[in-house]
Amino acid sequence: MSSVVSVVINGTTRDVPAGVTVAAALLDEGVVAFRRDLHGAPRAPLCGMGSCMECRVTIDGRTEQRACLVVVGDGMRIESTR
Amino acid sequence: MTPRRREVDVVVVGAGPAGLAAAAVAAEAGRRVVVVDQSPRAGGQIWRHRDESALGRVPRALLARVASAGVTVLTSTTVIDAVSPRQLLVDGTDGAVAIDTAAIVLATGARERFLPFPGWTLPGVAGVGGLQALLKGGTSFHGKRVVLAGTGPLLVAVAAALAHAGAHLVLVAEQTPWHRVAGFALHAFTNSSRLRDALRYRWAFARTPYRTGAWVTAALGGDRLRSVQVHTASGSRNLECAWLGCAAGLVPNTEVARLLGCTVRADRIAVDHLQATSVPGVWAAGECTGVKGDAAAIAEGEIAGRAAAGDERGAMSATLLRARDDGRLLGARMESAFELRSELLDLAAPDTIICRCEDVRRDAIDPAWTPRQAKLWTRVGMGACQGAVCGSACSALFGWPANTVRAPLGAPSCGTWLIGLTPSTPPATPQPGQPALGEDPHRDRVG
Q1: Is the ipTM of this complex over 0.85?
Q2: What is the pLDDT of residues B353-396, one digit of tens each?
Q3: Do B224 and A19 touch (CB under 8 A)?
Q4: Is residue B185 within 8 Å of residue B337, measured between CB atoms?
Q5: Which one-letter DSSP state was computed for residue B42?
Q6: CA atoms of A50 and B366, how far apart (whole Å)
Q7: B105 CB burial (10 A radius; 0-12, 13-18, 19+)
Q8: Of B425, B444, B439, B415, whose CA–CA distance to B86 is shortest?
Q9: Greatest CA separation found in chain B?
Q10: Do B123 and A56 count as a contact with CB atoms less than 8 A apart?
């Protein structure tokens, strides 16, 4: 396994360390809003372990995926609400 | 469509210390064992890792034992329904699977308790263990200003981990007053390895003040966190930071247990001397039966795993019982020493969001309402997390009992849930003395 994988974050291709979670990749990329609440306010990971549901993003077209529970894969397409 | 099926002797829910120990001993006794865990790797929260070489001796040995005993570990897999003590419906990377089993061991661990305060929904505000989980997931905290506020030994361990990762720790705030921390330390440190750990941790963040009797009263910022307001003995202070790790201790995960109808007392799964729950065929071990640390969780897991495999004599080994007793005593001391102060229960302002999934503000909830009325009017606790976060807040603010549990757990896709609802065989016959489906007041079934 190579030490970096290439993922597409909100349309931009980025190399990120292999083995990190999608949440880590987004945070290190400076993504502030993983999702937005009903009033448009940004939300980001709270619990980091899959119970709070605040880090939900779209991964490879599947909506409502918990970014903290998914490890990045080569070619993965990740969309937050921006 | 019907779910794919799988038949085993023992299903273990949770791949932390207790679950792995239970799985290893049951498989070594010749049982077919499956472990399910929603994380991408086995280890639970305490042994969360990116690379196995980073793990200590105990977890590596246990993982090796699990592998050589022939246990199947299904990671990235969430229990979405506990159909009966003989069938769990899980959702993994390949969709829904119905697992038929003779026994279930619940080792669902604990999560952090969050109590709302102004600004707690800002990006940059996470839990104490939450920050540790993000760090272990690969998030970089190098050079970032971090404030930690929480309670108990976890706070100190996370502070050390962040300092090691190059974070600029501004303050570590422990809500408990100094004399209680000292009293706990006096007992805990009669064990020399605990004393060694504590000193090592404190040394790691030696340059950062550790303030007792201190807690966060507000988080401030626009689009993300810029600073926090901290109450300390010497007055209120405003500290600039990029991250706040803030939580109010730990709370056992009891959702699957409650779906099965297991008795839950004082927020933890009630178990007997063999770790058996009130429902025949279901055992529980580790933090979901009360927080007590990894050593005792392993012992409880072994007891539960042996009992679930039918070896009740082996389950009563003196070594296991001693390790369990030690952990329970420590857990009880920890709970009384780090009791939450009342100020933390009431920090939310009228416009503070209580239910983060459904955006319900504190002033939208009439304290005179019953939980049911509040749900009907506001949808509090009815969002994606199903009250996992706001349940504690509502108990603290309004005195409500634990949130009702209903399937599906873990927010599966509609397609998965529809497949899961399609019965492929007649429902299992309830055991004598055990509630039939629909009779249990703790669960509401759909469909």
Answers
A1: yes
A2: 999 999 999 999 999 999 999 999 999 999 999 899 999 889 88
A3: no
A4: no
A5: S
A6: 30
A7: buried
A8: B425
A9: 66
A10: no
DSSP code for B276: B
Residues B180, B181, B186, B189, Cα dihedral to 10°: 150
Per the CB < 8 A criterion, the answer to whether A11 and A80 are in contact is no
What's the 3-state SS for B285-326? CHHHHCCCCHHHHHHHHHHHHHHHCCCHHHHCCHHHHHHHHH
Cβ-based contacts of B50 with chain A (< 8 Å): 19-20
**What is the rounded CA–CA span in Å between residue B321 and residue B15?**
22
Q: Of B171, B244, B253, B262, which is closest to residue B209 (Cα–Cα)?
A: B171
Of A24, A32, A38, the CB nearest to B123: A32
Give, for A67, the enclosing helix (H) or strand (E).
Answer: none
Let me know if B234 is exposed, middle or buried by CB neighbors in 10 A (0-12, 13-18, 19+).
Answer: exposed
Tokens of B122: 């800002």
State phi, psi for B184 to the nearest 5 degrees: -65, -45
B331 phi, psi to nearest 5 deg: -60, -40
Which pair of tokens denotes residue B252?
A: 């056992």
Which residue, chain included where needed, has tokens 């299904």?
B74
Of A24, A25, A53, the CB nearest to B357: A53
Size of interface A-B (CB pairs under 8 A): 123
Q: What is the pLDDT of residues B212-247, one digit of tens each?
A: 999 999 999 999 999 999 999 899 999 999 999 999
